[in-house]
Design brief:
Elements lengths: L3 H8 L17 E7 L2 E8 L7 H12 L7 E8 L2 H14 L1 H5 L14 E5 L7 H14 L4 E5 L7 H4 L7 E3 L2 E3 L1 E2 L5 E3 L16 H13 L8 E5 L6 H9 L4 E6 L3 H16 L4 E6 L4 E2 L5 E2 L7 H8 L3 E4 L4 H8 L10 H10 L4
Parallel strand pairs: 2-3, 4-10, 4-11, 5-9, 5-10, 11-12, 12-15
Antiparallel strand pairs: 1-2, 6-7, 8-9, 13-14
């Protein structure tokens, strides 16, 4: 007859997906009850609304159903206090496999991906995710096998732009990336949480671990191009991507405003300091085309091209303000977009055709 000791022993086989240590050792199992053929488990998560709780729950259910006489498993979730969380991370540091055996800044490898391109900016609101999505669509139309990592973990938008909902599933070779109607593969935090409006409240080290898993634990297969949509700025996430991803080049997105240009300069300098090859700069919202064909520079005279020349960085072109892009992004129909010339030229530069 299965008893509490059997249950706790089985739970010792369930690992925290991020910390790499079993739930019992981490002190995450708070209560266990068995009534008839039903086992109830109370789990304390390291963060409220942890997006990995579904995987933890599924792993617990699968492990406990192996026990004799158990046919139903109920998993309830709570969250740790700050002190409990710090204690858990200390335990992980002492016992976690990743912390013991791997250099956290070691470049990742092992994926059969031909070329990885980061798309970033020093400032939010310049259309970085739009450019990432359009580059992926343009490459897919040329017959390349394309993937997208939505590295903006706390503010993901790639699934919405491509009209993707629902949770990712695990396969024999790892997490299966979501495929769009045209075959573009993607992974995003919004595809790992049941409610996309749930905020992700994590510190830098946890974000770094999730990014690592987006690369190593996903069955990407043989990709020709993998685009990484970075969050704005030069903080933890872009730094982690530059340090551990085998990046082949970076596209920087900006807009005509002088403030945006100043902040983007920081992103360019960061990439240079991290020895990341620069593909060039794409300018978004450069002008608006009126019905009579006149081009109006809504944000004033652009100096982006001039700044690129000063810094010796390729200027890849400007994209107009086009309300249709906002509409198709909101509708999740980006794969039907008319491709801007600046995006076509950027892809040619990435492929070495220009």
């Amino acid at each position: 007859m299965t008893d509490r000791n059997d249950i706790m022993k089985a739970l010792g086989n369930v690992m925290d997906p991020e910390l790499g240590v079993d739930l019992v050792t981490l002190g995450m199992i708070r209560d266990v009850k068995m009534q008839g053929d039903t086992v109830s488990v109370m789990v304390a998560l390291t963060a409220p609304g942890c997006p990995l709780k579904n995987k933890i729950g599924k792993d617990i259910e699968e492990e406990l159903k192996k026990l004799q006489g158990v046919s139903k498993v109920e998993v309830l979730f709570g969250s740790m206090t700050e002190a409990e969380r710090e204690n858990t991370f200390q335990k992980a540091g002492g016992k976690g496999q990743t912390q013991q055996t791997e250099d956290p800044l070691k470049k990742l490898s092992g994926q059969p991906i031909k070329r990885i391109i980061a798309v970033g900016s020093g400032k939010g609101g310049v259309g970085k995710s739009l450019v990432t999505s359009l580059l992926a669509v343009a490459a897919s139309r040329k017959g390349f096998k394309v993937g997208v990592i939505d590295a903006d973990i706390t503010g993901p938008s790639i699934p919405t732009i491509f009209g993707q909902k629902g949770l990712l599933v695990a396969g024999e070779k790892g997490v299966e990336p979501r495929k769009t109607k045209k075959g573009i593969e993607m992974v995003s935090m919004n595809l790992l949480i049941p409610d996309p409006t749930t905020p992700v409240i994590w510190r830098g080290p946890v974000l770094a671990g999730v990014l690592r898993q987006f690369y190593t634990d996903v069955n990407w297969g043989n990709l020709d191009l993998l685009f990484v949509d970075l969050p704005p700025g030069t903080a933890d996430v872009p730094l982690t991507v530059f340090q551990i991803f085998p990046i082949d080049g970076m596209v920087v997105v900006t807009s005509p405003q002088e403030l945006a240009n100043l902040v983007v300069t920081k992103a360019l300098k960061m990439a240079a300091e991290m020895s990341i090859p620069l593909v060039g700069v794409v300018e978004n919202m450069t002008y608006f085309v009126c019905k009579d064909g006149e081009k109006v520079e809504v944000f004033g005279k652009s100096r982006v091209q001039e700044r690129c020349k000063e810094q010796g960085v390729p200027y890849l072109g400007g994209m107009p303000i086009d309300p249709s892009y906002a509409r198709i992004a909101d509708e999740g129909a980006i794969e039907d977009a008319v491709m801007p010339q600046a995006v076509e030229d950027t892809l040619k530069t990435i492929l070495g055709e220009k």
